[in-house]
Every structure is written in C-alpha cells, then in structure tokens.
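[Meeting: bench + compute handoff]

Bench side (C.D.) handed over the final construct sequence. Compute side (W.E.) agreed to return the predicted structure before the next meeting so the bench team could plan truncations. Sequence as handed over:
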Amino acid sequence: MSHVRRCSRTACRQPAVFTLTYVYADSTAVLGPLAAYVEPHCYDLCAVHAERLTAPRGWEVVRLPVETSGGGPGSDDLEALADAVREAARPPARSEPYPGEPVGEGQEILRRGHLRVVKSDRTDQRDPRRPHA
C-alpha cells in the first residue's frame, strides 16, 4: 500500500506537493519541492495552499523553483536546501563582551547565564548599604 502525504492544512485532503520551512533567524519562509522525508518542523502543502501562502508582516517568502520534468527533486537539491536553512539558522557571532572586558563604566568579573557582575571603575561611588549623610 502506497502512503501519499497529505496537505498539513486542517481539513485539506489534497496530496502534498510542496514543503514549507520557516527560518526564524532571518524572518524567512522557504517554500520548495516536497521533501523526501517528513520533518517535524516543516509543513507539507498542496498546490492550492502553496499558491495562497502569505507570510507574517516583515517576513520574506522564498519560493524555490519546482522541476516539472517528473523525476522530482534530486538529492543534491535537497541537500543544498537543507544546507541553506542550516546556514541561515546559525546564530550570529558573539557581540557581547567576554569576562574581563570593559562594560560601560566598569569591568565584567563574572557571568552566569544572561546575568553579569560588573565591578565599577569609579572611585567616588558610595557604598549602597550605608545611608547618605
């Protein structure tokens, strides 16, 4: 028995012919030929729903060309698409200072997760635990 993948849209019974993938880091929706395997974070769409696809405001839709020669996408095409999505999803280079680097008017001395301990370089600062005279 042959298993035909169906459109991911609710109540649509049409066969899927496209795969939709979101690249959140670039605010991009990529619509390409039906992927060879079902991926958990991708959506299979029929021709009608793929045609009517819109993206959220500020997002870009990239529609990859679909070969109509019949053989379907080649493995090189699918690998190139997967590599492009992985590259786009890769986190940007670290722009935060490393421990020991200057931060504002102080120097970072410790980091735990997103929190930093910064030692002030200012010498005229009063002790916050002591009342002001």
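W.E. noted at the follow-up: Strands lie at 18-23, 28-33, 42-45, 60-63, 102-103, 106-112, 115-120. C.D. will use this when planning the next construct.
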